[in-house]
Write a structure and sequence with these properties.
- It is a single chain.
- This protein is mainly α.
- The protein folds into two domains: 1-42, no CATH class; 47-143.
- The protein is 56% helix and 0% strand.
- It has seven helices and no strands.
- The two termini are 18 Å apart.
């Protein structure tokens, strides 16, 4: 979540009886405004964990050349070692074996990082996924 909101405004009864609500956010301010009872800080993956996740979602059965593997490792770091970004990128690049396309993907990620705040950093992976969709109907569905 990027902003706090009133639970009842989205149909969540207050007080919650017999249930637990889990909220995810990068903002401590949102936690405070939502009056969260318990906060659990989740740290990004280590470089090793991030690299283990990438081939798992890309597919171990798909061999990568040493050049492409180096680029893929840089891509995991550009995702700030965050699982959602890594999974998205691994699935996006599945089936791509051209080194130039991998380099372009990495460069696109680096370009979108320049001068952006945290919220925009998250959307760079989504933007990349969107632009990789070859069909305009799929792009419209993605936007929806």
């Amino acid at each position: 979540m990027w902003n706090s909101f009133k639970l009842y405004e989205v149909g969540i009864p207050v007080p919650l009886k017999g249930c637990k609500l889990i909220i995810t956010t990068r903002s401590e301010k949102v936690c405070h405004k939502m009056a969260c009872q318990h906060k659990i800080k989740v740290k990004p993956l280590s470089d090793e964990e991030a690299w283990t996740l990438f081939p798992d979602k890309f597919g171990y059965d798909i061999p990568l050349s040493s050049k492409v593997e180096r680029i893929a490792k840089h891509i995991t770091r550009e995702c700030d070692c965050l699982p959602l970004g890594i999974i998205t990128m691994a699935r996006c690049m599945k089936g791509v074996d051209d080194t130039h396309e991998w380099k372009n993907a990495l460069e696109d990620m680096r370009q979108s990082r320049v001068g952006q705040d945290d919220m925009k950093k998250v959307f760079r992976t989504l933007r990349f996924s969107y632009t990789r969709l070859s069909d305009s109907a799929l792009q419209r569905c993605f936007l929806y």
